[in-house]
Amino acid sequence: MVVDQLSLARQLDMVFKELQEELSQLSSGTIFVQIRNNLIGKFGIRHLPLEGSDGKVEAKVQGLTELQQRSFLKTAIEALKYKTNWTHGEIHFDFTVRHNKLCTSVQFESNYNMSNLLMRKSN
């Protein structure tokens, strides 16, 4: 399989499949994907698996259900429609479960390289 022939949506599907087990153990966090030339490179989850109050720390037990994970993936793929023409950057998909309801948000970050800009200007 040639990765550069895969759509960003298909790559995102592969990311969610790889993170499925970890997501099943988390009720909140941020999935991040780093994009270079419209290819996902590094990806993962930032999360706080522990909660504390009154000096006691407890592990979060309930994670995302299979249905919530499918819904989250659908939202993430739908969000790609709002990615503009940049080819390098990061996308952050925040998630949390509140009252058994999945809440999500998306943040786009475009990255540019000054050396590429200077090279274009000198030509």
Give the % helix: 25-40%
N-to-C terminal Cα separation, in Å?
A: 36 Å
User: Given the C-alpha coordinates, what overall shape results?
Assistant: elongated
What's the rounded overall pLDDT mean? 90
Helical segment count? 3
Provide a descriptive summary of the structure in words.
- The protein is α+β, with helices and mostly antiparallel strands and 123 residues long.
- It contains three helices and six strands.
- The protein has helices at residues 8-23, 66-79, 114-122; strands at residues 28-36, 39-46, 50-53, 56-59, 89-98, 101-110.
- A four-stranded antiparallel β-sheet has the order 2-1-5-6, covered by helices on one side.
- The mean pLDDT is 90.
Question: What's the helix and strand layout?
Answer:
Blueprint: H1 8-23, E1 28-36, E2 39-46, E3 50-53, E4 56-59, H2 66-79, E5 89-98, E6 101-110, H3 114-122
Antiparallel strand pairs: 1-2, 1-5, 3-4, 5-6
